[in-house]
Amino acid sequence: KFEEVAYLILNGDLPNSKELKKFEKEERKERKLSKSLINIIKQMPKKSHPMDVARTAVSVMGLEDKETTDNSPKANLRKSMRIFSKTPVALAAFYRLRKGKKIISPKKKLSFAENFFHMCFGKVPNKDIVKAFDVSLILYAEHSFNVSTFTARTITSSLSDIHGAITGAIASLKGPLHGGANEEVMHMMNKIKKPENALNWINNALDKKTVVMGFGHRVYKSGDSRVPTMREYFGKVAKIKKDKKFEKIYDIVEKVMIDRKDIHPNVDYPTGPTYHLMGFDTDFFTPIFVISRITGWSAHVIEQHAANKLI
Predict the structure, then answer these.
(1) DSSP 8-state secondary structure symbol assigned to residue 211
(2) What is the residue-wise DSSP string for 29-75?
(3) Using alpha carbons only, what angle is made at residue 151 by residues 231 and 174, rounded to the nearest 5 degrees?
C-alpha cells in the first residue's frame, strides 16, 4: 500500500497497524485547501501545464503555512505531510476546472489513490485499477540522487525552507529528460497510432538517430528494476480496459530497442500508457509522479537539514 511506503520514507521504518492508521488519519485531515488557494487555481490560465500548477500551488502553500521558517525535523515532517496531502487536491481541482467542470472535494473515507480518482473523475474505479495506480505511486516515491532530488537538496543546503525546495524539485522534474519522459512516451505511442506501424516507426527513428523516450537510465544500464512490476500492472489495466493496442506497440518498440541498441526501458515507458488507459490526460502523468515523489523529496530535505553543508 502506498501509504505504508510514504510512512516508511518519511519515518525510516514500516508502520505497524496503529502507526499506519494515525498516518492515514493525519493525511486525510490535511487535504482541505484554503479558499485563497482554490481562488488562485480558478484564476490560472486553462492552458497552463499541470506541472506549473503543481509548482505554483506548493509555492502558495509556503506563503500560507505558519511553520514556513521553522526547519526543525518535527516542523519539516508536519509541513511535508501538508504538502503531500494538499498537492493532489490542488492538481485535481485544476484537472476539473480546465474541463469546465466543478471541483470535487476530497473524501476522508477514501485512500490516497482512491481519493485522487474520486477528485479527478467523480468516481473510484475497480480495485485492480486502484491497485495498479497505487503500485505506480510506490515505484515513483523515491529514487536516490536524480536531478529533482539534487535540486531539492541544493536549495535546502542554503538553509532555505521545504516549500521552496519542493517547488524547485517540481520545476526540475518537469523536463522531458527526467519526469516528463512518461508524457513523451505517450506522445510517441500516439504518433505510432497502431501496432502495424510500430516496427517501421522505431527502425526509422533509430536510423535517423532520434532520441526514443522511455528508454535508458543513468543508473540502470541493463534494465530498470522497477519495469517488470509496472509492466505487469500495465498488462492488467489493458486487460480490464479491453485495449491491447498500446501493449502491442510497447512490445515491438522494446524488442527493437534492445536488439538494435541494447537499451532497456525505464519505469516511464510502461507508466505512460498505463495512466492513459486509466483515463488521465497525458500532461497529467508527470504531476502524478509529483504527488508520489513529494515523499522522497521531503525525506531528502529533512536529511539535508540534519547534517547540512552548503552545496
Answers:
(1) P
(2) HT-PPPHHHHHHHHHS-TTS-HHHHHHHHHHHHHHH-TTTT--SHHH
(3) 50
What are the helix and strand counts (H, E) for the chain?
A: 15, 0
Kindly state the cell numbers that stand for 216.
535508458
Residue 306, C-alpha cell as written in the block: 540534519
Residues forming the active site = 178, 217, 268
Q: Nine-digit cell at 81?
A: 505531510
Contacts of 130 (CB under 8 A, 6+ apart): 111, 113, 114, 117, 124
CA 89 to chain centre: 14
- Name the strand (E) or helix (H) holding 250: helix 245-256
pTM of the model: 0.97
Q: In 3-state terms, what secondary structure has residue 158?
A: coil
- Contact in structure between 198 and 253 (CB atoms under 8 Å): yes
In eight-state DSSP terms, residue 27 is H
Degrees, nearest 5: CA angle 95-121-126: 140
CA distance 94 to 76: 26
What is the full per-residue pLDDT of the chain (311 aa) written as tens digits? 999 999 999 999 999 999 999 999 999 999 999 999 999 999 999 999 999 999 999 999 999 999 999 999 999 999 999 999 999 999 999 999 999 999 999 999 999 999 999 999 999 999 999 999 999 999 999 999 999 999 999 999 999 999 999 999 999 999 998 899 999 999 999 999 999 999 999 999 999 999 999 999 989 988 999 999 999 999 999 999 999 999 999 999 999 999 999 999 999 999 999 999 999 999 999 999 999 999 999 999 999 999 999 99
